[in-house]
Amino acid sequence: MELSALHELIGKELAGELSGAEGEVLHAWLAQATAEERLVYEETKRYWHTPAPATVTAADTAAALEQLLTRIDAAEAQPQPRIISWQPTSSAPWWRTRAAAALAALVVAGGAVFSYWSFQRATPETGIPLAFEEKTTARGASAKVLLADGTAVWLNADSHLWFPKSFEGAQREVYLEGEAFFEVTPNKRQPFVIHLGAEQVRVLGTSFNVKAYQEDETMETAVVTGRVAFIRSGAEDATSSDTLYITPDQRAVYSKSTAALRRETINSQDYAAWSRGGFVFQSTSLAEVARTLERHYDVKVQFANEQLRHCRLTGRFRDQTLREVVSVLALTGSFGFELTDDQLLITGPGCEPTSTAPAVAPSL
Predict the structure, then answer these.
(1) Which residue ranges does the record assign to the FecR protein domain (predicted)?
(2) Distance between CA atoms of residues 183 and 95, nearest Å
(3) What one-character DSSP code corresponds to residue 242?
(4) Among 46, 162, 303, 309, whose CB has the most other CB atoms within 10 angstroms?
(5) Is residue 301 within 8 Å of residue 290, measured between CB atoms?
(6) C-alpha 231: how far from its chain's center?
(7) What is the SS3 assignment for 4?
(8) Distance between CA atoms of 214 and 169, rounded to whole angstroms?
């Protein structure tokens, strides 16, 4: 089946205009679709039938529709793996069918596109403008993004960055979920603001790392050069008492559960190591080590004993395989492991919550 014809069928179904014959064709496609394609199809229907948030303006809607139509054109240019004979039975649809077809294009245009809309829909309070571009990285991958003002952003694994095509207004604003290292182009008249859900990081020009994964209990930013303001939710501006300023070799750590914000002294180069292909553990809990390995190597880590999460490890690594990293860490005697192609099982009796394991010889 032609991709555009599939969009048309799904669009008609969403708009309530699908004929019986067209329904049979669509059902035939669903019968041979993969589990992932069927899941995305069902989620797209759910999205379509959910009322739009009241904060979306007409301009936002127009910009979003323009993006979707552009994605249709791009998707239509891709070769299709499956062909089902079908002949359209009606002329061009009216605007609602067109909008529904545009949304339906997301079903087959790629998982990353769907993830963007899913995130937008699930967390409208983030206020991410619909016209913003999105860059995503999968587990086991990283990317570099050059913004319109010359700011360079290294995006770590399993992360999302939303940004405009050009920076206008009083501030340069981007949105981050995951981890990124920023080298911000100085501009005293236009501060650079990174939105991390309800919290913000604000700078004029500097280099620093931000870590804000949705599943982590903390958010943190570590400064390499310059000065950074971490602003808690509810603060009116950067001069508020809810703002913490940090300078080189310092990091701000924010607890999502307690809203506590603290400053720590660190070696900032350790926090930039991942952007050069390495990573550093410094008395890091095995639970956090596991999360890093899952993102960096796209592997599922399981614990045979929950006490293992309390063990703490130190080590430096660069351009090494997962087996090499785990083998070196296991030399501490804190744990054993079983490694298959896509799963790492950590074994052993575990540690008390306050224990610290011997440090591993640096290999970075």
Answers:
(1) 136-228
(2) 44
(3) T
(4) 162
(5) yes
(6) 21
(7) helix
(8) 29
Kindly report the backbone phi and psi dihedral angles of residue 74, in degrees, each rounded to the nearest multiple of 5, phi listed first. Answer: -70, -40
Q: Which residue shows structure tokens 């860490």? A: 329
Express each pLDDT in 141-190 by its tens digit: 999 999 999 999 999 999 999 999 999 989 999 999 999 999 999 999 99
> Tokens at residue 60, please?
């936002």
Distance (Å) of CA 157 to CA 42, 79, 174:
27, 28, 18
H helices, E strands: number in the chain = 9, 18
Read out DSSP for 91-121?
----HHHHHHHHHHHHHHH-HHHHHHHHHHH
Contact 212, 196 (CB under 8 A): yes
3-state helix, strand, coil in the chain (%, to 5): 35, 30, 40
Residue appearing with tokens 């890093």: 292
Q: How far is CA 29 from CA 3, 26, 94, 97, 108, in A?
A: 11, 5, 24, 19, 12
For strands 300-303 and 261-265, give the pairing: unpaired
For residue 178, the cross-strand partners are: 212
As a whole number, mean pLDDT of residues 113-133 equals 58
Q: How confident is the model at residue 236 (pLDDT cuts 50, 70, 90)?
A: low
Q: 271-306 in b/e burial notation, b at 16+ Cβ within 10 A?
A: bbbbbeebbbbeebbbbbbbbbbbbbbebebebbee
Angle at 116 between CA 112 and CA 117, to 5 degrees: 120
Pair of tokens at residue 331: 């030399």
* Range with top average pLDDT, 26-40, 235-249, 282-296: 282-296
Name residue, tokens 């209990």.
217
What are the tokens at 67? 């993006």
Q: Kindly tell me the burial class for residue 357, based on how many C-beta atoms sit within 10 Å of its own C-beta (0-12, 13-18, 19 or more).
A: middle
Residues 217/255, Cβ–Cβ less than 8 Å: yes
Q: Token pair of 257, please?
A: 């559960």
Is-contact 333 288, C-beta < 8 A?
Answer: no
122, amino acid identity: A
Read off the pTM.
0.62
Distance (Å) of CA 28 to CA 25, 33, 60, 90: 5, 9, 36, 19
Amino acid at 189: R
